[in-house]
Write a structure and sequence with these properties.
The protein is of the alpha/beta class. The protein folds into two domains: 3-260, Aldolase class I (TIM Barrel, Alpha-Beta Barrel), CATH 3.20.20.70; 276-360. The chain is built from 18 helices and 14 strands. It has helices at residues 15-23, 37-41, 47-50, 69-80, 96-99, 106-109, 112-132, 165-177, 200-209, 225-234, 245-249, 253-256, 259-264, 270-273, 288-302, 308-319, 326-334, 339-352, and strands at 3-6, 29-31, 35-36, 60-65, 86-91, 134-136, 145-147, 151-156, 182-185, 216-219, 240-243, 277-280, 283-287, 358-360. The protein is globular and about 60 Å long. 43% of the residues are buried. It binds flavin mononucleotide.
Length: 361
């Protein structure tokens, strides 16, 4: 079975969205939005919100960003204590303000020893946590205490525009040799925009290189069953797929990909209890109005007030693409100044367009 992973997205991949995805049956791993290590260590007023883990707790991967290894290692050690699968190092973000500061994809472009030092320091921090933390084994016949295993992973791109294939694979080999246990490849270069087709052939080659070593996950442009199947046909040796943007536009995407429905049965999921999934004339439908309203309600519960407006806007910038008059409702939502206004605006759209409310799963 291929893994299905919710991708990290700054301002979007937080507890409020995770809760909705969990209600739809969940996915295998939740990467958090990138957490700035140096800021996190200040324990400022907003930082604790990044570490909320009430839903899908055991499946969370804490993604770190930063320009220096020391705070990243310290932060990794702290976040290990929040549980979850482990720590991910962001080596893929190519937003200019990130890489120019020495973070994100800059780690693929710095002198190799510097990046190696980062990986080793974070690996050591995780190991020291693992070695000091005992948990009960999963073996119900013979329960005994074992060391905790928090994983180290890296999410990366191909590199700069003039990257060389061999050097890229060599870089990945260095990560593996220094204890990285999973790689997620978003196969675009630093400057390649999301509109450009991802180069899945590099995922396949990397997966073949890492066969019997560590899992390689494909990321980029998976948005429905057809694109999932296309991606898997191009990279059959990948161990799974990470979905970022579509997990915000359609938090039910993992459910829609079919696997979750069969495993859990639609009737078993929290989405039915909460009215996100309804049955009509033998079809199972998503109530997109209720999901949107739940997202706003979750902002109140799980985000600091100072973030409400911008996080509502970032979400609806994707979510509105579900609707026939997406541009119209998007511009109205992006102009809302309060969550109350956003709720009223969103609700009124379905008075005008009742047919947009449901989507067949
Ligand atoms: C709004 C937004 C925020 C993102 N933030 C992050 C991030 O915090 N960390 C990261 O590694 N990638 C980030 N990405 C990149 C995505 O995780 C993913 O690699 C990219 O969107 C391609 O996957 P997709 O086609 O499934 O969206 C972000 C992308 C978007 C659109």
């Amino acid at each position: 079975m291929k893994k299905l992973i919710a991708g990290p997205m700054a301002t979007l991949s937080h507890q409020g969205l995770r809760k909705i995805i969990e209600d739809f049956g969940g996915c295998d791993e939740y990467y958090t939005e990138m957490i700035n290590a140096a800021s996190f260590l200040t324990h400022g007023q907003f930082e604790s919100f990044y570490a909320l883990n009430d839903f899908g707790r055991e499946k969370i991967v804490w993604q770190l960003t930063g320009k220096d290894s020391e705070p990243m290692a310290k932060c990794a050690r702290e976040l290990c204590a929040s549980g979850g699968i482990g720590i991910d190092l962001n080596m893929g973000c190519s937003a200019p303000e990130i890489y120019k500061s020495g973070a994100g994809i800059a780690w693929m472009l710095k002198p190799r020893e510097e990046t190696e030092r980062l990986v080793c320091e974070v690996r050591n921090a995780i190991d020291s946590f693992n070695n000091q933390t005992l948990v009960t084994s999963n073996d119900s016949e013979n329960p005994h205490l074992i060391h905790r295993h928090q994983r180290l992973s890296v999410k990366l791109r191909l590199g700069d525009e003039n990257f060389k294939e061999d050097e890229f694979y060599d870089f990945c080999e260095m990560l593996y040799k220094n204890g990285v246990e999973q790689l997620v490849l978003h196969p675009r270069t630093k400057k390649e925009k999301l509109a450009r087709p991802p180069r899945y052939q590099f995922v396949e080659q990397l997966a073949l290189n890492m066969k019997d070593k560590i899992p390689v996950i494909l990321n980029g442009n998976v948005k429905d069953v057809a694109s999932y199947e296309n991606a898997m046909s191009k990279a059959p040796d990948a161990s799974g797929v990470m979905i970022a943007r579509m997990s915000a536009q359609k938090p039910w995407i993992f459910c829609k990909l079919g696997i979750r429905n069969e495993e859990l049965g639609i009737g078993a999921s929290g989405a039915v209890e909460r009215g996100f999934l309804v049955e009509k004339d033998g079809d199972v439908l998503v109530d997109r109005f209720k999901v949107g309203m739940e997202y706003i309600a979750n902002l109140r519960l799980y985000q600091p007030k100072e973030f409400w407006e911008t996080r509502m806007q970032r979400f609806f910038a994707y979510y509105c693409d579900n609707f026939s008059f997406g541009h119209y409702i998007k511009s109205k939502m992006l102009n809302c100044k309060t969550l109350e206004e956003a709720e009223k605006t969103f609700e009124s759209y379905f008075d005008e367009m009742p047919g947009d409310r449901y989507e067949k799963i």
